[in-house]
Amino acid sequence: MDGGSTGIRQGFICPFCLVDLGSYNALAAHVENDHPEDANTPAVEQLKGFFDKAKRSIKRFDPGLDIENLRGRVSSGLTAVASSSSMTQIDETSPKQTHQNTPTTTRSNDPTPRFEAKSKSRERELRQRARRPELPPYRPEIGVTQKHTEYYVRCREASVNDLAVRTNTLIIRMDKLINEAPADPAKRKGKLTNPALAAAMQDEDEESAKKAEVRSLEKLADLAQRTSGHLRGLIGSSKGSRDGTEDAAEQLRVCVPCLSLLEKRELQMEARNPPALVSIYERLIILLNEISNLSPAYAKMASSINNGEALYSLSSAEEIRSKIARKQQEIDLISKSIEGDETENMGFRERQLRKNIRFVAIQTLQNVISNMQGLPTAEKYAELAELHRRKVARQVEEQRAIAQRAATTAARAIRSDTSSPEAIPAAKMTPSSSFIGRSVDDGWTPELSHSLHNNPFAEQVEQKHPLEEQRDIIKGYLSQAAAAGRLEEVEMLERNLRDLEIAMREHQIHTP
Amino acid sequence: MDILATVRLYIGEMVAQAGPQMKVLLMDKETTGIVSCAFAQSEMMHKEVYLFEKLDSPVPREQIKHLKCIVFVRPTQENITLLCQELRTPKYAQYFIFFSNIANKSDIKQLAEADEEEVVREVHEYFCDGIPLSKHLLSIGMRNPYDASFRLSTTSLLHIKQTIIALTLALKKKPTVCYQRTNEDCERLAGEVAQTMRREDGLYRNCKEDTMLLIVDRSEDCATPLLNQWTYEAMVHELLGIQNNRVTIDGQNLVLSELQDDFYEKNVSANFGEIGQNIKTLMEQFQSKTQIHKNVESIADMKSFVDEYPQFKKMSGTVSKHVSVVGELSRLVGTESLLEVSELEQSLVVDGDHSQCLDRIRVLLNNRKISNLNATRLVLLYALRFESNQSNDINGLINILKQREPAASSLVRSLLRFGGATRRKNELFGGQSAVEMTKRFIKGLKGVENVYTQHTPFLLQTIDAISRGKVNEQLYPKHASSEFVPRVDNIIIFMVGGATYQELFHVRAANERRLQSGGPAILLATTHMLNTKGFIEQLRAMGGGQ
């Protein structure tokens, strides 16, 4: 087979001994008998596959074509689309085509669909459809995870406690210095630099730390703010002016590590008061959730109304529509205010953050709007409703006729098949009755109450309180459970209902 | 096994752990690639993740105190140090830390000690330590893992091992570890993976034992990355270069993701002819709906069609993007005479006669229309194919090529040292056994269907053998320290030194076949995705010191 691309032999040639056997059956028999040791090898499998393919190819192409011709056609198949933009043939060396190589629109003469292209994609489609039933459907799941939070927190506690102790000690010390210092500034200064005192305070640390924890946070915050205000310039001055010429009356000297402790404290305090943006943003998210929930409900109503159905009233749909519109406006306004304007002074990232929030809001709105169907005018709706009524009437009529026909055929079938003793009960059986005589231990589920479905939406639009809605649902379940004789469920549901009513009273919702 | 879906679940869970409120995602270079292939940016923003930052960004990051921060990084020493700095002066309110791999206890302790302000809320290991390029493909994105002696560098070896471990944990598999016997790196990797699996036994507690991990090296098949490709994805990578599912055309960055792009998903394995046809069909459907009558025959027609009818863009979503991609491909096919080049490549690697091939290469090397890259690939393929042919003229061709590619002779030398006959010890171009001959016989006839896609990667033989449960244990033995798995339902193939989209094509096909006729599921993992340009650059880097 090393004969090069031109040396292709045709016919039903045995791949092992290269004998032409004339037909597929003869070749298959020959391979099975004369080369049995390879009966299950890929070679034979592939050979079979190949013949299937070859057969298909023969169907696809004119039988008269020889392989060289086929090859030409197929390769032009691959190139046709490629060539249509800039070239018309593979053979570009021929000079007469050079003018066609200009990238202008040169239309190909042969735009017909490619055999192999089509058949291949069809094969792929088929392959995708023909799933093997034995393979369980693949459900991706999250992989292994490992949690280190507890270990981390244990490690942190050890080192952070130490820090808290140091900070609190420092603050208490400063409290003493600022609020309980002697009036004489000279004396005060002495105190600060007095190593004996510092040592004494050091000893105090453990004790005062415990006391500090009891102190209210507000007081500490206040203290830290008051003190660090003084402290800002201190580091510089403590380095620069050792001679003590500056007026130390209102100043304290603090070493660098202590200052950083204080600053951290201050930052933590700040973090407790989040900026206005956070609460505005929270409002925005609530609105976005609301509008995302409202719009499918509206879509359902709108399509029902446009069908002329009487399930929802036109006015309630209009009401929801305007509600959505109001929320849209608010979302637009809020997200715009979050984005702020160019003149506002904020960092690059902060600006980007706000822009992206706005982007999400706008995208959600666009999504909602693009899914919103219009509503008909009152007159148009009347027309639609009339049309729908007629259609339903017709359908009911048809269904009745079908049911009648089915009933008569079924009756006839039962009569004709009385030889089997189980035939009659089987025909009578409804799905649930097949469980008669066996206590059903599991699998009882109440169905959503039909009465709720049939409620005209007008009532739902007034938006019952969720608790109220829940109560109605549970009531429905309760009656179903009672009817089904599920005592356990009845008990549980009754408990549930009681809890709900208590909750409703707490929310001051009217309970009947 | 769907690694893309798994990674999406992991990242979704990270966001869920952080809870509501505005969030920032802090990543490193590697995890940025992971997130960007698993989620569109807008998708993340709808999960309230509005900012994306890099832990190692040289510009100091802005402090935004009201943000929650999700940290998703590899647990490297460098990242731990940076993270400690971050925690000492926190820029955000709360931190939720997710390591992409197994982290050292001592590193976690170090972090805890730096967290003086108690800003960290959670610390976890979520095992996504490679880029999920598609369902069945994971790449580390490591450009050149080899050193000048064609061996894996120590850092590459460690990184590859870590990625493999994370991959098995993500898929909840405890595989038996097999490797390509002829390659020492593969053996070493297999040993280290098996060892780590033993050591981390606890992590593998709930993992299934139904999987085989096979570690192979690129040097086994250097022909595949040197060929022009004609299936969509492979072709785009070969001609335009795909970087983490993104491609740049005319300065425009286009995302090619099977996740977000139906047309791409359907056509990713289609050949060049089919894609044009499929775009045309969509345009015709649009025309019949909108009562427009316009003749769309060529790519240029398609382009003007997209410009003229913005509604089409709206309706067909991503299709118009593919018009520009296909347009660019088609332009390159024309200007670089790729059909001619490809036909010669195919006969070089499939069944070409030596003297004929040599003549045709000489002609093309002197053709100015043939790009330097294509000239180089032809000479390299010739050298690889006819290396042991007594009458080969490798030196003659190198001399012609030198005018275009000054490093011609060092490239050929590197190629033959890296993946030549003496090193690979396999029958890359077909052997003399009856089965091999039959395969070639069939290939020859199949080639009738399409002359440009006759060649199949060597990996396909391996996949076929494994699918039928007939692994050649001489070539791919189980590592001594790895445990035996009684029944193999899944195969993870890790290809060291880069894989090609052509190989992915066959992995996809095998997984599709599985739906119909059974066989194991296959996932391809690799250090990086190769095209000819990348492969030649890799050879150049390896041969640099010689």
From TrEMBL, chain A:
Quick one: where's region Disordered?
81-141
Bias (Basic and acidic residues) occurs at 113-134
Coiled-coil regions listed: 483-510
For the keyword Coiled coil, the answer is yes
Domain of life from the UniProt record:
Eukaryota
UniProt keyword terms in alphabetical order: Coiled coil
Every copy of the Rabenosyn Rab binding domain together lies at 466-503
The UniProt regions of compositional bias labelled Polar residues, in chain numbering, are 87-111
Annotated protein name in UniProt: Rabenosyn Rab binding domain-containing protein
From which organism does this entry originate? Mesorhabditis spiculigera
From TrEMBL, chain B:
Q: Which family does it belong to?
A: Belongs to the STXBP/unc-18/SEC1 family.
Q: Which InterPro entries match?
A: Sec-1-like_dom1, Sec-1-like_dom3a, Sec1-like, Sec1-like_dom2, Sec1-like_sf
Q: What protein name does the entry list?
A: Vacuolar protein sorting-associated protein 45
Pfam families attached here?
Sec1
Listed Gene3D superfamilies:
1.25.40.60, 3.40.50.1910, 3.40.50.2060, Syntaxin Binding Protein 1, Chain A, domain 2
**An individual GO BP term:** vesicle-mediated transport
